[in-house]
Amino acid sequence: TADIQASTVGSAKIMSHMPLCATNMLQGLFANHHMKYTGRQQLGVFLKGIGLNVDEALKFWQDSFCNGAGGMTSETFNKEYKYNIRHMYGLEGGRINYKPWNCSTVLAKPKPSKGEFHGCPYRDFHPDKLVGELNSMGINDNQDITAIMDDVAKTEYTIACTRVFELTHKNQMKGGKNFDQMHINHPNLYFDRSRQLER
Ligand code: SF4
C-alpha cells in the first residue's frame, strides 16, 4: 500500500489503526533508538504485513536507530542490523518469507524483560498501566474497563483486545458494517480491519 512508508508508519494516522502490541513497540523504539531482538522480529514482520517493503523497512529501522540523541552510526547499522532486516524479507540466508506473527505466536515467546517491548500488553502490562493505556485510547467507562480487565484476569488476551477494537471503532461500526468472525487473533487483522472501517 502506497501510504505505508518509512516516514509514515510512525505517524499518528497510521498508528491509530494498530493494536496495542504494535503501538507499544513503536513507542519503545522511538524512545530508545534501539530495539532488542524479539521486538525487532515481532515489529519487523508486523510492519512487513501492513505493507512496508524492504527498502522502506531498511530506511525506517535505520532512521529509528540512528536519528536522535545517542543514536548509532549508519555504519554500525549497516554492519549489525541490515542483514537481519533483509533476512526477515527472505532476501538472505535460507530465504524464508517470514509471515507476520499471530497472537498465539506473540504469546508463545518469552515475556519481555525490562527494556524490551515485544509481547502482548494485555498480558504483560501491570494492570494500572494497562488501565492508563485504555484511558488514553478513550476507554473510560467503568463497565468497559471492568469487562476488559476481567478478560485479562481470565488470560483471554485476544478477547480483551477484540473488545478494545469494538469500543474504539464503535462509531465506524454503527453503519452496519460488521465482520463474519469478530474475534481478532492477529495483530495484522486488527490493523486491516481498522483501515477497512476507515474507508
Ligand atoms: Fe497484539 Fe494480539 Fe495482544 Fe492484541 S491480543 S495486543 S493483537 S498480541
Overall mean pLDDT stands at 94
Q: Would you identify the regions where 5 or more consecutive residues have pLDDT less than 50? A: none
Give the number of DSSP strands. 0
Radius of gyration: 17 Å
Overall 3D form: globular
- Write the element-wise H/E pattern from the N-terminal end onward: HHHHHHHHHHHHH
Percentage of residues in strands: under 5%
What is the number of helices? 13
Which small-molecule species are bound to the chains here? iron/sulfur cluster
Largest sheet: none
State the end-to-end CA separation.
Answer: 14 Å
Helix content: 55-70%
Give the helix/strand class: mainly alpha
Description:
This protein has 13 helices and no strands. It is mostly helical. Helix 10 runs antiparallel to helix 11. The longest helix has 14 residues. The radius of gyration is 17 Å and the shape is globular. The two termini are 14 Å apart. The mean pLDDT is 94.
